[in-house]
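quick one: cobalt (II) ion bound model?
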Amino acid sequence: MENGITIKTPEEIEKMREIGKLAGELLTFIEPYVKPGVTTLELDNLMADYIENTQHVVSACLGYEGYPKYTCISVNEVVCHGIPSAAHKIRNGDIVNIDVTLIKDGYHGDTSKMFLVGDVPIRNVKLCKCAQHSMYEAIKQMAPGRNLTLVGDVIQKIADKEGFSIVREYCGHGIGTGFHEPPQVLHYKNHNNLLLSEGMVFTIEPMINAGTWKTKVNKSNGWTVTTSDKQPSAQYEHTIVITKDGCEILTHRPDDEIEKVIHVL
Ligand code: MF3
Ligand code: CO
Ligand code: CO
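yep, here:
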C-alpha cells in the first residue's frame, strides 16, 4: 500500500494482463456488428454470449450497484453509462462508445473505445480523435517518479487547443480486485499530486465534450449520463500498469495507435 493505493505483485499483474487482453478482445469481437439498424440491446446480447460462452469470464458491470446489463453503450450526447436498450437503434453518423469491464480470478480489466458509424460529421470525428489521442499522450507520460497530475495537464492542453471541454464529474480510477480503487484519475488540470510507483494499476478514460463539460444523470433510470447541452461526447479508456521505466497498456488491442509497452524514462 502507498497512500491507500495497492501495489500489485508480478503475479497479480500477470492476472490483470490476462483479463485486460480479454476485455480488449471483446471490443474487437463486437466491431463488425456496430452498424446502422442494430439495437444497443442486440450488441449487449452478443457481448454477453461471447463473455460467458467463448471467454468464460464475468462482466463486472452486471449487478454493479444494481446496473442491469453486461456493458455500457453510450451514443452521441450520452457521456457514459448508457444502458443497452431494444428501443435504441444505431443510425448512420452515430458515434458509439462501448465500455466493457471483465473479471477473471478476481481481477478486473476495464476499457472502452469509440465506433464511428458510417458518415460521421467531421467535427465529431475530431472529437473522437481528441479523446483517443489525449488518452495516448497522457499514457506516454506515465512512469515511476512522475506525478499523476500529468494526466490532467496533457489532456487539458489538447482539449483546449481543439476547443473541446473535459467532463469533471467522472474520472479514471485504480483497479485490481476492486472495480474502482484509489486513486481518482482526473482528466482536467488539477493539483491531486501523487507520485507514481512501479506496480500501480489504474485507468485513464477521458470524456471529451463538443460543448459544455456539464452533465446530467437520467432521473428515471439513475444511470445514463448525458451532456447538459445535448452536444456529443467521446471517450476512450485503457487500464495501465506502471513498470520500471514507463508503463504497459493491459487492455491493448491490435488497432491501437500506440505500443503496448511504453519506455518513458
Ligand atoms: N466501466 C465504467 C468505468 O470505466 C464503469 C461502469 S459501471 C456500470 O469506470 F455499472 F455502469 F457498468
Ligand atoms: Co473505468
Ligand atoms: Co470502463
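The longest helix spans residues 10-30.
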